[in-house]
UniProtKB/TrEMBL annotation:
UniProt-listed SMART domains: AAA
GO molecular function, a single term: ATP hydrolysis activity
Name of protein: ABC transporter ATP-binding protein
Record carries keyword Lipoprotein: no
Boundaries of every ABC transporter domain copy: 2-230
Record-linked Pfam families: ABC_tran
Record keywords: Amino-acid transport, ATP-binding, Nucleotide-binding, Transport
Record-level GO BP terms: L-amino acid transport
Record keyword Transmembrane helix present: no
């Protein structure tokens, strides 16, 4: 579904990505692991078309998107849920859900979303400001399910959340996968990553240095320890 080859990216003169190679197959959940500053967020932002200076190849469903603007990348069916979540404080839950434009057929309708996220249904009329961190993260994920995006990119969805909420996010991601969505996520929480993903890429200094299938994660701990300091 997604094939990234030799992706490079710059912020001004600063060369941040030095050749990222990633494949994500339809229906998979894939993580990007790596230390702070390794280039994980920049990889997601580059795929989304949000980093102006980039080179290499990003093919989505067979079409080259490296030169597309972010709105056209969104129309192609890719969505990014950024680390800061982007919930509008002055809008209530339903208004936040209805805000992003539908870019493709096949998104979930509001009743289905509320069935998947009963907590959000209970808070349907609460303004964004009144939501907990976990509810905001759920809303940020729920919102992109409506748009028809097929590849959901989530940047550190568990950051700052209590363990019980992290488990809920894990259940949500597994349910999304069961419904045929494809997920590429940045994670620092190794244990969480293990409960949701099919495969893991390790990013270091702007390059992919390793790929580990989830069932080999435990036996690859020594190797990963070196990269991640876990
Ligand atoms: P983190 O978990 O800390 O977000 P990361 O692996 O996602 O880490 P990136 O955020 O992609 O890393 O950052 C990669 C490098 O690019 C870092 O050296 C960072 O300082 C730099 N960088 C990130 N955003 C910008 C920006 N807007 N302008 C200049 N440099 C940036």
């Amino acid at each position: 579904m997604l094939a990234v080859r030799g992706l490079q990216a710059w912020y001004g003169e600063s060369h941040v990505l030095h050749g990222i190679d990633i494949d994500v197959n339809q229906g998979e959940v894939v993580t990007l692991l790596g230390r702070n500053g390794a280039g994980k967020t920049t990889t997601l932002r580059s795929i989304m078309g949000l980093v102006p200076k980039r080179a290499g190849s990003i093919r989505f469903e067979g079409k080259e998107t490296i030169n597309l603007r972010s709105d056209l990348v969104a129309r192609a069916g890719i969505a990014l849920c950024p680390e800061e979540r982007g919930i509008f404080a002055s809008l209530d839950v339903t208004e936040n859900l209805m805000l992003p434009p539908v870019v493709r057929p096949g998104g979930l309708d509001l009743p289905t979303i509320y069935q998947l996220f009963p907590n959000l249904k209970e808070r349907a009329n609460s303004p964004g400001t009144k939501l907990s961190g976990g509810e905001q993260q759920m809303l940020a994920i729920a919102r992109i399910l409506r748009t028809g995006a097929r590849l959901l990119m989530l940047d550190e969805p568990t950051e700052g959340l209590a363990p019980v909420i992290v488990q809920q996010i894990g259940r949500t991601i597994r349910e999304i996968k069961a419904r045929g969505f494809t997920v590429l996520l940045v994670e620092q929480n190794f244990r969480f990553a293990q409960t949701v993903a099919d495969r893991h890429y390790v990013v270091e200094h702007g390059k992919v240095v390793d790929m580990v299938p989830n069932d080999q994660l435990a036996s690859s701990m020594d190797r990963l320890h070196e990269y991640l300091g876990v």
